[in-house]
Amino acid sequence: MKVVIFEYVSSGVYREPLYPDLMIEADLMVNALGQGLAEADCELVLFRNPSLPPPLFDAKIIPLTEKDDWHSILEEELHLADAYIPLAPESDALLENLCLKATQTHCTLLNTAAETVRKTADKLYTLQQLKANHIPCLACDPIDACVFPMSEDRVIKPNDGIACDYTFLIRAGDIPTAEQRRYTQICQPYLPGIAASLSVIYADNSKPCILGVNRQEITINEHGCFRLDTCHVNALAHLQLDFDHLAAAVKKCFTDLVGYVGIDFIIHDNIPYILEVNPRLTTSFAGIASTTGINPCAMLLAAVCGDPLPCPKRSEFSSRTIVLSEE
Fold it and tell me: Distance between terminal CA atoms of the chain?
């Protein structure tokens, strides 16, 4: 099977500076994905900024520069390929539009389809749907409906943001600055607890397969800015919480989820409250193979092809720490 990998930040399309922290995450996911697909006997095509070092796997490299019509080049490669997986943030419809290219070129998409990506990228809509289906999740309101100062701590962030980008803690009695309001559209209660995520493989003919129960280390600086510093893959796999029920409930709410999905949540009073659903590879993906002994790419291919998913026992998982910041 010939598979095209298009990672937005490292592809040559991204026009902002390639800061070290940004490239750590991008290359972790690209290399884990490429090595896993190669192990599954796939022939790989990778779009890659020519200023970056080569990946840690064999692939046909498509270098992109500012002068290239990358849309046409990508579509040409997709016409020649069997399958395609884009890695990109949901913000500004980037991931949605990249997923649409699979439909336009009749190439098999190794990801959730564009329509469901669009729905889950909208955090307010996602949490409203989860709440309507009685799934524990954090309350969420449009920021314009919130009157500051408030009597309790609040978190404000973009409605289609990724990770902790432009996410701010507003303490009780404080008012968001104009700069903070510029980038944020939703407001949520600040809920103390364990920041965590699930790494799930979804398929239409199998129950959800959880490959990761991960703990996240998030810091808040003196300006109230959140930052994800470290991800401990499968550090929470031992917890006796019904994560299988949670993953299945999310699938019932968004029935077209397929392939790898990350679910972020806060564990408060032993209850996981969902923050967002990410229909794409997340950073934790880079630690799945080493902590489970399973090739997640083989599971991903099976999910998309409609093959049964053999779910491993989480009691046998080890853990791995992924550091995302150079500081």
Answer: 40
Name every residue whose Cβ is closer than 8 Å to that of residue 165 and which is 6 or more positions away in sequence: 91, 158
Beta strands in the chain (DSSP E): 2-7, 43-48, 60-63, 83-87, 108-109, 141-142, 154-157, 168-170, 186-189, 194-203, 206-220, 226-233, 259-268, 271-278, 320-323
Is the distance from CB of 263 to CB of 112 less than 8 angstroms?
no
Helices (H), 164-319: 178-183, 243-253, 288-292, 296-305
- In tens, the pLDDT along 117-165 reads 999 999 999 999 999 999 999 999 999 999 999 999 999 999 998 889 9
Q: What share of the chain is helix, strand, coil (3-state, %, to 5)?
A: 35, 30, 40
For 265, phi and psi rounded to 5 degrees?
A: -155, 165
C-alpha 115/C-alpha 109 separation (Å) is 13
CATH value of 120-135+193-323 in 2.40.10.340, 1.10.3720.10, 3.40.1190.10, 3.30.470.20: 3.30.470.20
> Any idea what DSSP says for residue 212?
E
* Rounded alpha-carbon distances, angstroms, from residue 193 to 236, 247, 252, 271: 13, 20, 26, 10
pLDDT recorded at residue 198: 98
Q: Which residue's structure tokens are 């290399």?
A: 31
